[in-house]
Design a protein that fits this description.
Blueprint: H1 3-13, E1 17-21, H2 22-35, E2 42-47, H3 54-63, E3 66-69, H4 72-80, E4 88-90, H5 97-105, E5 109-112, H6 115-124, E6 130-135, E7 157-158, H7 162-172, E8 176-180, H8 190-204, E9 212-214, H9 232-250, E10 255-258, H10 262-265, E11 269-280, E12 285-289, H11 298-301, E13 308-310, E14 318-324, E15 332-340, E16 347-350, E17 371-376, E18 379-384, H12 389-393, H13 401-410
Parallel strand pairs: 1-17, 2-3, 2-10, 3-4, 4-5, 5-6, 6-7, 6-8, 8-9, 9-10, 12-14
Antiparallel strand pairs: 1-11, 11-12, 11-16, 13-16, 14-15, 17-18
Organism: Gaetbulibacter aestuarii
Pfam families: Orn_Arg_deC_N, Orn_DAP_Arg_deC
EC number: 4.1.1.20
Length: 411
């Protein structure tokens, strides 16, 4: 999308505002499909937690994607978006057995990552096949908060506990139809990914009724010009050959599954904010915008980088700015960034705002959450209205304290 198109959208729908480019989502999806075109059976399940707007889910369904869900509400969203139950896999962590049973009742695929839950579910529902999430004890990911395959992770069943899994399966007579892993996000070294995959193949040999092997995702996308990213094409070439060879050894054509979130939607997203003020201090020039970590928490939470550009003045001379928000705490989006000269009222664009941005937004400071727009077929489509003050009050219940006082006095 061009700066002019984004400025026009901001003028029409106001700021702050999230904008998503449908063509970029499609190109990322097709890139992944093409990278693994040598695999006879490939399934891409979009990780709903990255961006859960129902219009995005419907668009990805039209491309051919299934979905990976982590809560019963995401399962419900998927069904509402038109996905068939068999196109949905439920991969929760730390939820109650009741929530897993509720998802199973809806007919979706179940992925279990806890020995206790596996035994409970297998004892009560041996007729329902389940997938098992394995922890390969491989450290991968760009940040400790998003590295989930290491030995101290809360996710998955340790590969050293395979005998316990086999004992549960034998005792309950349950069927294991899939093996899954997810080592972390922002994986750059594909050799680490391939190493973890070998652990998954070794694990798969213990189970004779598999239908699919899910390799998770976590592919790194570029966050700035010239940034490095996961070489999907090289990974596709190497993993496809190894997967096809494993299927021959296994004696059955299995489905190779992935669950990308960030890879599909991160680069498609733009977060647009207006500059409220330019404030010079003794050491810093601040560009203060009409948003904060209530709308985009990743820089404060993960230390993540979002490229920031001034789309109102794309050809202006560059100066150094620290871009901050309006939250009553430190909420710095970027320190000493080279940005085209900023004046009050300009629109700043934060790139890579498609994944884990709106979905992690809140009403902190009683601020309203932004609107969302989808750029599709060269037109802007509003896919979520901006919140109003009524939304802040919705579900709150006011106590009539005067009446309470009168009742107490009478008693």
């Amino acid at each position: 999308m061009t700066p002019g198109q984004l400025v026009n959208i901001a003028n029409e729908y106001g700021s702050p505002l999230y904008v998503y480019d449908a063509d970029k989502i499609a190109s990322q999806y097709n890139r992944l499909i093409k990278a693994f075109n040598e695999v006879p059976q490939l399934q891409v399940n979009y990780a709903v937690k990255a961006l859960s707007n129902i219009s995005i889910l419907k668009y990805l369904r039209g491309l051919g994607a299934g979905i990976d869900t982590v809560s019963i509400q995401e399962v419900q969203l998927g069904l509402e978006a038109g996905y068939k139950p068999e196109q949905i896999i439920f991969t929760p962590n730390g939820v109650s057995i009741n929530e897993i049973e509720a998802a199973a009742k809806m007919g979706v695929k179940i992925n279990i990552d806890n020995l206790s839950v596996l035994e409970q579910f297998g004892t009560k529902h041996p007729e329902i096949p389940v997938c098992i999430r394995i922890n390969p004890h491989v450290m991968a990911g760009g940040n400790s908060n998003i590295s989930v395959g290491h030995i101290d992770s809360k996710f998955g069943i340790s590969i050293h506990q395979i005998p316990h899994i086999l004992r549960i399966v034998e005792n309950t007579k349950m069927t294991i139809n899939g093996i899954h892993m997810h080592t972390g996000s922002d994986i750059l070294d594909i050799e680490v990914f391939l190493y973890a995959s070998e652990i998954l193949f070794d694990t798969a040999n213990h189970f004779k009724d598999l239908e699919f092997i899910d390799f998770g995702s976590g592919f790194k996308v570029p966050y700035k010009p010239g940034d490095i990213e996961t070489n999907i094409e090289e990974l596709g070439n190497k993993l496809s050959k190894r997967f096809n060879a494993f299927c021959k050894e296994y004696g059955k054509d299995l489905t190779l599954a992935f669950e990308p979130g960030k890879f599909l939607v991160s680069e498609a997203g733009y977060f647009l904010t207006a500059v409220n003020a330019v404030k010079q201090t003794t050491s810093t020039v601040f560009a203060q915008v009409d948003s904060g970590f209530n709308h985009l928490i990743r820089p404060m939470f993960y230390g993540s980088y979002h490229d920031i550009t001034n789309i109102s003045n794309p050809n202006g001379r560059e100066r150094f700015y620290t871009v901050v928000g309006y939250i009553c705490e430190t909420d710095t989006f970027g320190n000493n960034r080279r940005i085209n000269e900023i004046t009050e009222g300009d629109i700043l664009c934060f790139k890579n705002a498609g994944a884990y941005c709106f979905s992690m937004a809140s009403n902190y400071n009683s601020r309203l959450r932004p609107a969302e727009v989808l750029w599709y077929n060269n037109e802007a489509h509003l896919i979520r209205k901006r919140e109003t003050f009524d939304d802040i009050l919705r579900n709150q219940i006011e106590v009539d304290f005067e009446t309470k006082k009168l009742q107490t006095a009478k008693n």
